[in-house]
Each structure stands twice: as structure tokens, then as C-alpha cells.
């Protein structure tokens, strides 16, 4: 587990005391090959085009630079609840917003979001400009439109917005110029001299400010509320701490409708006379024109990418646009160090090297950070919109690989992300995650083969794959060897807690199906059917990529492994249960208190079907189709396929007192329904005895999923984490526009293909 060479100084911060031998443990040693993100395609114009963005998914509205020590800006607002002032800043379920989310976003330079409170409706629109000789990353504008629903002739309650900008590198900022639109100005190593301006046609707008010296914006709302309380006037104090690196501006209005334009102007030289014209180009009518143009471009690209005709119901179109808009608007940039478990009792936790991560996130309210297994599902949607964003994101993930070939599955990097968790977030270097990113890379190869890309675009993808191949090989090798079971061809997910007495069935978080029932007593005798199929898919993907790149020599014989793991006789001997007529896990289970097939039928049982291992003419295929559709098994519903059959003894049973809501024990999940639909579509098109049956099931399941998600979105304006197995209502986190956004690809019938 350790290297013998001396530890370089740059790693000294990872170990807490110098009594440890001067070695770098492999678990915190970067993979020894050129970084994928060092490719020329990620430099120059591409890198600058992504420098500014809405990369703070945790904030209701926030922008930042893709920089370890960034400039950040954001919005807060004040509401009254139960007679007390409450500040909105970071997305929280407890805030109880009627709805919020990006209605449109293009992932690069435009987004439009609507946030609805009981007494307020806010619309935030963001657009970037790179016209003229500007600073690095260009200029940007934010339009904030507020409808004060509490305003009437009798009680004219005002609106209080708080817009802020911070330099997290610590540079001090200066308060703006008197009798001008300038709020604050400063200087930054990348963007040069900059100014922040405010323009508004709203009458009687009041503006107050306060400057703070603080490392980040995590506790900024507390600082603002403290200042408001101390001023006793309900207004910021118009003061600033010495060398303040954060300025907050209170924007107050007593009108029913207020509109405020904020403009960030970069690369300012000595010719300040042009500031007024540059400000006008970013605000007012110019901004209106720019936003209208971006809206039209979004609509046009949406039609091009997803081929939903204008004749489609407008409610379906709204869901589709919200799916891609929220997915792109939820992309974040993070920088920090993961904590990693280590074997030495004196140093059980080590720090990974400082790293950056550009990634989509599952959910802005609850999970605003990166998840390795989720990211492949995210990119199945994103690459169809902008393949370069996908390559950038996948490249960042691959660069997190250590020299063992392991990538930490959950990345909570930086103060904002860490503020969301209440416990130490430690990653275990034996714990895997589904290798979904490989499916995306195969999709890109398939796109090249089907001429979906221009010549130059195809060349970029090929160069990416050539550079990343050594890391993909290492990742597969680590996955294949580290997750092996006792028996040849068997695999089991690591990370289950065999010592806990707090859970009815120890969770298998690594699989992505956290509380899906496995063997009640975790051990190395376990065999997990879904993991075997995931590793088969990984081997098949690596075989596909290897052949495409015409690699003559590889570290692993992917064809041989894929052939072995797709052997149906071997799979049935290991996982098939003749009583249930399906595939099951194997392990020590309380049902009979011995090693046995684990008698819980659900998503895991369908993985041989999902991975297309079953031959089209096999009677086993018919059994899998019956498992999906027959009522007596109870996976089928009018809203989608259930995660666990109603006949299971753990169906909808809470797993623990601290886990009172069953998640993968009945409720409907979009990512698994999407993968099942992909296989149904496949088996309905290949020559076989059950193609008509597969087509009937496919059509009905697809229609059920679309109609239910659209209905629930129309009622709630949210896409949900999961859907109720008996009523179809949304459950869990919202807006959950991670893998639930796959509903858009279900609408367009776009599935991962090999």
C-alpha cells in the first residue's frame, strides 16, 4: 500500500504528523500519467468560455470562476416567517419554496431560473458577454425580476434583496464611486481590474451596503443578519471592515414589480470613460435583447438535440426543457481535498491531494456535490447537448484517480459543499461505484461511427480517448480485481457494515441502491448479481473502445472477460433461483440463516436483462419479461417499475430508526427504468421469439413513466428523486434533476447502445 520513495514537500499537508515514515501511501498518490485535463482541447478558448458560470448549485443563485481561489457572486433575500425575518441563500427543503429551478440553461453563457415563495416570485437571468477587449472570461449580467405578491393597497410590504460579490483569494475590494452606478470594484489576477454596476428603472429603489472580511460565503447570511440586527433600522450599516473582501448590497423596493440589472465589467484599463457605454451594453434594453436572443437559441438547440416536435404537448416540452435546463444549471465547480480512510491505526484518515472537480450534481438542495456512479447517468443526457462539456467533466473525474486505479466515489470538496454535511465524510479505498462513465464514452464512439459529429469534433473525442485510455485501463483493473468474490466469476460490493446493529439490512451504498435488500449478514461469501453485470458491461465497453482505437496490446483481455461474464450457463449456476424464476444475490441471510439465494426480487434481479446477456431466443428472456409485467410478481405499476416486488418480506419496510423512509424497497427510480427501457427496446428490435412481447411492454412502460412525471411536474413544478409505488406522487428530494432528468431521453427514445 505504500511507495518507498521520499515524500515530496507538496504532499506534506496530507499527513498530520511527522512521526509517520517519509513515504507517500499509494491511496493518496496521483495516477502516474499525464492529466487528461492538460489536453490542448481544454485550454485556450474552451477554458475561457467556461471560466465564469453558475457553478454554485447549492446557492439559489450564485456564480463563480473556475478557479481554486475564485471571485464569487450571489443573491440572498429576506422573507418574514412566523413574524421573524428569515434569510434565503442556500437551497434547503425546509425553506418550503413552492418551486424553484432553471427553466432554461445552455451550460456555458445563459440561464433563466424562476423561484416561487408564498409571497414572492423571483426570476433570475444570467448571460455572459465576450465582445471587445475584455478581461479573461469576459463580462456578465444578472437580471433579477421580483413580483411582490404580499403587496397590496392596504399593506405595502417591501422587498429586500441582497446581492454580494467576494474575492476568495483575499484581495480587498473598494466601495463604488459616488453618483455613479458602480457598486464596488477590485482587481483579480485573471480578470484584471473589474467593476460591479447596478442599473434599474424601478422607482424609489434604496441601496445600502456592508463590507466583510471572511474566507468564504458559507456564513455570509449570518453576518448580514447580525449587521441588520445591530443597525436596528432593518438596513445594512453602510460600513465596511478593513480590507473587506466581500461586499453585500441591500436592494430594497416598495413596488409590486421590481427589476434590477447587475453588470460585472472586467479588464478595465485606464480609459474609464467607456464605462458608461459598457454598462449600458450589459443592462436595460441591451440586456433584454440579449436575453431574448439566448432564449431563442436555447429553444432552437433544444429542438435540434432532442427532436421533440412542436406538436408534442406543451406540458411534455416544459418537463423536457426543465430536465436539461436544471441538469446544466446544476453543474458545479469544486476545489478541495477528500478525506480517505487508511489502514494505519495511528493515521486512520489521510487527505487526498488538493484537486478540482467540474461536475453535475444530483440535487441542489440535498446533494450538491459530485457522485461518480451518478455522473455517467448525467452525462448520458449532457453529451447530446454539448459533448465538450461531457469530455471536460469526465476528464476531471478521471484525473481524481490514484495510482491504484481507484476514484473516490463521492466528492465533497470546498467549504460550501462541506457545510451541507453534518459528519466527517471519509472515502474508503476498497469501495467502488457503478462504472457508468464507460457507457457514456461508448455512446460517444457510437456517435462517431454514426457520423453524428463533424470531423474536427470526432478528432477531439478520439484524442480524449487515446489520452484517457491508460486511466480507463487502470480503473477497470482496479474494479475487476478489488471487487472479486471467493468463487471465480463472482463479485460483491465492498463497504457494507457487518458489525452494525442499527440497520435491519446493512446498506450497500456502493451499488447506488442504498437500502435495496441484500444478504442480512455481510461477508466475503456474498455474490451480487448487479455488480457482476456492471463489470461485464465495463469489460464490454473497454473491448469496444479498444477495438475502436485499434489497440494491439492491452493490460487485460477484455474480450475474454466479457465472454466469461456473459456466459448464461455460468451466470445461472451462480445466481439463478428456480423457485422465483429469476436472478438473485447469494449470501448469508436471515430468511433461513444460512448461505443461500437472497429471496428479494427487484431491480438487481433484472441486471442480466439490463446488460443484454440473455439471448433473444432464450426462455429465460420470457421469464424476465414476465417478471417485469406480470401482476403476481408486483414489480409493475401504472407509474413505472417498482424497485422491489411487493412479495418481498422487506417491501416498504424501514431499514433503521434513522432511515425511516424506504428508498429502494418499492419506490420507482428513473435511472433503472431508463436502463430497463433500453433493453426492452433492444429485445423488441432483434430477431427473437419474444420481440412483440418486449415491444408491448416497452410501449406501456414508457407511456406510464412519461405521463406520470409530466402530471406530477404540472402539479408541483418539480422533477423528483423517486416516485411513489402506489400513487405515482413525487418523493424524496426535489428538484432532483440528476438521473431523474433521463425522462427527457425516455421521451426522445435515446438509449445507451453498444
From TrEMBL:
GO terms for biological process: oligosaccharide metabolic process; protein N-linked glycosylation. Residues 497-521 are annotated as: Disordered. Its EC number is 3.2.1.106. Residues 49-201 form the Glycosyl hydrolase family 63 N-terminal domain. Residues 283-748 form the Glycosyl hydrolase family 63 C-terminal domain. Pfam families: Glyco_hydro_63, Glyco_hydro_63N. The keyword Iron does not apply. It is found in: Endoplasmic reticulum membrane. It is a single-pass type II membrane protein. GO terms for molecular function: Glc3Man9GlcNAc2 oligosaccharide glucosidase activity. Keywords: Endoplasmic reticulum, Glycosidase, Hydrolase. One of its GO terms (cellular component) is endoplasmic reticulum membrane. It catalyses: N(4)-(alpha-D-Glc-(1->2)-alpha-D-Glc-(1->3)-alpha-D-Glc-(1->3)-alpha-D-Man-(1->2)-alpha-D-Man-(1->2)-alpha-D-Man-(1->3)-[alpha-D-Man-(1->2)-alpha-D-Man-(1->3)-[alpha-D-Man-(1->2)-alpha-D-Man-(1->6)]-alpha-D-Man-(1->6)]-beta-D-Man-(1->4)-beta-D-GlcNAc-(1->4)-beta-D-GlcNAc)-L-asparaginyl-[protein] + H2O = N(4)-(alpha-D-Glc-(1->3)-alpha-D-Glc-(1->3)-alpha-D-Man-(1->2)-alpha-D-Man-(1->2)-alpha-D-Man-(1->3)-[alpha-D-Man-(1->2)-alpha-D-Man-(1->3)-[alpha-D-Man-(1->2)-alpha-D-Man-(1->6)]-alpha-D-Man-(1->6)]-beta-D-Man-(1->4)-beta-D-GlcNAc-(1->4)-beta-D-GlcNAc)-L-asparaginyl-[protein] + beta-D-glucose. It is an enzyme of class 3 (hydrolase). Cleaves the distal alpha 1,2-linked glucose residue from the Glc(3)Man(9)GlcNAc(2) oligosaccharide precursor. Belongs to the glycosyl hydrolase 63 family. This is Mannosyl-oligosaccharide glucosidase.
Amino acid at each position: 500500500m505504500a511507495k518507498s520513495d521520499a515524500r515530496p514537500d507538496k504532499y506534506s499537508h496530507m499527513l498530520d504528523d511527522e512521526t509517520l515514515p517519509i513515504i507517500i501511501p499509494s491511496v493518496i498518490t496521483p495516477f502516474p500519467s499525464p492529466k487528461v485535463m492538460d489536453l490542448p482541447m481544454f485550454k485556450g478558448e474552451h477554458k475561457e468560455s467556461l471560466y465564469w458560470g453558475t457553478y454554485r448549485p447549492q446557492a439559489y443563485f450564485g456564480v463563480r470562476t473556475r478557479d481554486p481561489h475564485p471571485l464569487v457572486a450571489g443573491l440572498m433575500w429576506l422573507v418574514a416567517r412566523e413574524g421573524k425575518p428569515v434569510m434565503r441563500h442556500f437551497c434547503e427543503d425546509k425553506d418550503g419554496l413552492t418551486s424553484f429551478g432553471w427553466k432554461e440553461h445552455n451550460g456555458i453563457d445563459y440561464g433563466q431560473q424562476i423561484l416561487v415563495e408564498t409571497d414572492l416570485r423571483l426570476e433570475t437571468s444570467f448571460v455572459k458577454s465576450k465582445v471587445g477587449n475584455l478581461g479573461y472570461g469576459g463580462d456578465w449580467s444578472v437580471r433579477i425580476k421580483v413580483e411582490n405578491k404580499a403587496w397590496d393597497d392596504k399593506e405595502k410590504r417591501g422587498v429586500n434583496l441582497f446581492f454580494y460579490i467576494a474575492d476568495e483569494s483575499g484581495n480587498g475590494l473598494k466601495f463604488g464611486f459616488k453618483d455613479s452606478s458602480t457598486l464596488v470594484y477590485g482587481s483579480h489576477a485573471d480578470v484584471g481590474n473589474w467593476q460591479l454596476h447596478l442599473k434599474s428603472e424601478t422607482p424609489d429603489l434604496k441601496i445600502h451596503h456592508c463590507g466583510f472580511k471572511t474566507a468564504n460565503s458559507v456564513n455570509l447570511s449570518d453576518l448580514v443578519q447580525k449587521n441588520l440586527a445591530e443597525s436596528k433600522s432593518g438596513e445594512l450599516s453602510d460600513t465596511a471592515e478593513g480590507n473587506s473582501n466581500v461586499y453585500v448590497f441591500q436592494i430594497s423596493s416598495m413596488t409590486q414589480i421590481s427589476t434590477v440589472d447587475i453588470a460585472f465589467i472586467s479588464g478595465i484599463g485606464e480609459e474609464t470613460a467607456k464605462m458608461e457605454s459598457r454598462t449600458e451594453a450589459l443592462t436595460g434594453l441591451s440586456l433584454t435583447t440579449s436575453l431574448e436572443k439566448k432564449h431563442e437559441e436555447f429553444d432552437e438547440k433544444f429542438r435540434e438535440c432532442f427532436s421533440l416536435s412542436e406538436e408534442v404537448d406543451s406540458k411534455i416540452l416544459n418537463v423536457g426543457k426543465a430536465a436539461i435546463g436544471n441538469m446544466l444549471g446544476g453543474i458545479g465547480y469544486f476545489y478541495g481535498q477528500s478525506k480517505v480512510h487508511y489502514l494505519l491505526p495511528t493515521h486512520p484518515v489521510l487527505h487526498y491531494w488538493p484537486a478540482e472537480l467540474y461536475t453535475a450534481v444530483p440535487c441542489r438542495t440535498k446533494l450538491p456535490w459530485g457522485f461518480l456512479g451518478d455522473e455517467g447517468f448525467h452525462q448520458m443526457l449532457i453529451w447530446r447537448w454539448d459533448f465538450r462539456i461531457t469530455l471536460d467533466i469526465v476528464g476531471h473525474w478521471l484525473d481524481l484517480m490514484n495510482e491504484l486505479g481507484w476514484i473516490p466515489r463521492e466528492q465533497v470538496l470546498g467549504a460550501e459543499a462541506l457545510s451541507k454535511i453534518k459528519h466527517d465524510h471519509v472515502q474508503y479505498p476498497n469501495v467502488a461505484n457503478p462504472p457508468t462513465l464507460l457507457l457514456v464514452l461508448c455512446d460517444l464512439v457510437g456517435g462517431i461511427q454514426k457520423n453524428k459529429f463533424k470531423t474536427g469534433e470526432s478528432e477531439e473525442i478520439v484524442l480524449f480517448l487515446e489520452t484517457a485510455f491508460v486511466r480507463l485501463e487502470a480503473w477497470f483493473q482496479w474494479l475487476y480485481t478489488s471487487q472479486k468474490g471467493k468463487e471465480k466469476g463472482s463479485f460483491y460490493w465492498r463497504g457494507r457494515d457487518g458489525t452494525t446493529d442499527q440497520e435491519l439490512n446493512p446498506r450497500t451504498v456502493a451499488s447506488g441502491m442504498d437500502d435495496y435488500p441484500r444478504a442480512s449478514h455481510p461477508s466475503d461469501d456474498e455474490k451480487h448479481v448487479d455488480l457482476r453485470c456492471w463489470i461485464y458491461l465495463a469489460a464490454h465497453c473497454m473491448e469496444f473502445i479498444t477495438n475502436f482505437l485499434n489497440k494491439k496490446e492491452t493490460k487485460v483481455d477484455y474480450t475474454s472477460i466479457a465472454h466469461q461474464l456473459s456466459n448464461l450457463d455460468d451466470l445461472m449456476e451462480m445466481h439463478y433461483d428456480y423457485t422465483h424464476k429469476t436472478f438473485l444475490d447469494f449470501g448469508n441471510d436471515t430468511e433461513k440463516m444460512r448461505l443461500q439465494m437472497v429471496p428479494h426480487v427487484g431491480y438487481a434481479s433484472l441486471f442480466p436483462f439490463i446488460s443484454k446477456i440473455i439471448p433473444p431466443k432464450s426462455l429465460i428472456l420470457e421469464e424476465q419479461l414476465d417478471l417485469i409485467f406480470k401482476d403476481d410478481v408486483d414489480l409493475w405499476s401504472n407509474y413505472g417499475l417498482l424497485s422491489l416486488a411487493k412479495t418481498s418480506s422487506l417491501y416498504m419496510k424501514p431499514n433503521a430508526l434513522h432511515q425511516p423512509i424506504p428508498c429502494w424497497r418499492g419506490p420507482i427510480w428513473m435511472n433503472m427504468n431508463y436502463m430497463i427501457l433500453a433493453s426492452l427496446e433492444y429485445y423488441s428490435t432483434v430477431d427473437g421469439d419474444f420481440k412483440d412481447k418486449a415491444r408491448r411492454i416497452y410501449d406501456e412502460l414508457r407511456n406510464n413513466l412519461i405521463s406520470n412525471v409530466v402530471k406530477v411536474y404540472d402539479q408541483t413544478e418539480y422533477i423528483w428523486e423517486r416516485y411513489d409505488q402506489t400513487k405515482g406522487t413525487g418523493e424524496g428530494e426535489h428538484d432532483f434533476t440528476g438521473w431523474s432528468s433521463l425522462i427527457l431521453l425516455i421521451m426522445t427514445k435515446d438509449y445507451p447502445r453498444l
